[in-house]
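Morning - adenosine-5'-diphosphate inputs below, output right after.
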Amino acid sequence: MSAPTVGMIGAGQLAQMSLAPAIALGINLKILAADESDSAAKIAKVEIGDYRDLDVLRNFAKKCDFLTFEHELVPNGHLRALESEGFVIRPSSTSLLVAQDKAHMRKVFTENQIPCPKWQVINSADAIPAFPAILKSITGGYDGRGVQLVKDQLSARKVIAEWGKALYEEVVPFDRELAILIARSPHNQVATWAVSETIQRDGICIETITPAPNLSEEVANLAQQIASDIANVIKLVGVMAVELFQVGDKLIVNEIALRPHNSGHWSIEGSVTSQFEQHLRAVLDLPLGETKMTAKWAVMANILGTENSDLYRPYLHLFARDPELKIHIYGKEVRPGRKVGHATVVGDDLAELRSRVAHAIDYISGVVDE
Ligand code: ADP
């Protein structure tokens, strides 16, 4: 029996980081890149094509045993068409729609008693029940783009004029943000990882700490329960990240991603099985890997682009200073604020780990020079 071919649509850093476990397992990972400058396209042989074109997708799918994604941008109708032609897509178009359409997500969650903020689909600012309010574009938002905190009617009107309609949400007065990763296989094997705390700045995640510090067992169990309820409801196949707001001992779901996710990058070094390997195992319906942590704590920080575009030069100093530091660089053009890589350390002393990662980020960004 020869190893199957998994086709991944999208060639960004998530596809790039999926390559290492695919190589280790001897799985053929075929990647459909939008552009030859995409992260994975720079290091692997990929096909270049437009994921919005059904013929491109079909031709790509013909060469693969399974199709999966590293982003949620493929038109759902195209996926349904391919499924009706017999191609195997994991997660399915029906599952994926929940992550592609935020209004649909809220509806499915509400119908299934998954805790959500108060929400409503609106096409006029007059329909907003209270200010301040959160407005979200129903499709296509990421890294905080497509999320607006509006303080009054006037600013809400401007947003709605631009978007046409929007998802209104109450502003959740959260204590902190958490994320949990879960994987499910077609055989209904489910694996979850420890809950992470995610720390954001300007709508972008800058750091994750796993396990989330001072998280009661009760709330950790609740997070696992919510993630597995969602996985069951949407018939997940693959890895899913669930972003949560913690309010006291309650959890509210912010959003989900049906793929490996930034909040799970810590799992490369911090877990026996990384989210990238697990996603491949789940898509292939193989038994899932152990998800326990390799150390007491894992701290990951994103490397955001600055004026300093040479990301290799800092290696010499950083690796000499901290032999346990792990750096991942995505090979993307460095632009201010763009996620261009991440750094991870694992170990016993949380305060020390956080300061080591923070130093690495500051050194790479040029904030400190020693
Ligand atoms: P994106 O898909 O762009 O990452 P999110 O839905 O995750 O957008 O929202 C980005 C950030 O906006 C969240 O991490 C959170 O800090 C804030 N946010 C989103 N929804 C709410 C809400 N209902 N109440 C309070 N803050 C919110």
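Note: The domain at 5-89 is CATH 3.40.50.20 (Rossmann fold).

O.
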